[in-house]
Design goal:
122 residues, mainly beta, 5-stranded antiparallel beta sheet
């Protein structure tokens, strides 16, 4: 059993219709690169089976060696977010990284066992 911590507050309630709008899929992080113009951001190339996306994440300060720790791993991603420009790069989604808001060393949200890339949650 893990230690108990004081977690971040629960966000406001949403409806099932709100939840149905989020497209969460499994993808494999095939490449992790540094974003030179940022102290926080890394750039991931993620394989979703039928398509590939570039996704930026503020993991550079959270992890000792993001490339060694997450490259080649499957994780959960939101794939239907509007593209967002950050530090001169464009992010086309969001990775689920557990723990940052609660002040613990983050870990990836991953499937229990390997599944085909692009499989949807829900």
């Amino acid at each position: 059993m893990t230690d108990r911590i004081k977690t971040a507050p629960v966000k406001p309630n949403i409806t099932i219709d709100d939840l149905d709008k989020i497209d969460i899929r499994v993808g494999t992080i095939v490449l992790v690169e540094d974003v030179e113009k940022s102290k926080k951001l890394i750039k991931m190339t993620v394989d979703f089976g039928d398509f590939t996306r570039t996704i930026l994440s503020g993991m550079k300060e959270e992890r000792e060696d993001p490339k060694a720790e997450i490259e080649g791993k499957q994780a959960l991603f939101v794939v239907n977010m509007a593209p967002r420009k950050m530090a001169g790069e464009v992010s086309e989604g969001m990775i689920y990284d557990i723990g940052y808001e609660d002040g613990i060393v983050p870990v990836l949200a991953v499937p229990e066992s390997e599944v085909p890339n692009g499989v949807r949650l829900g």
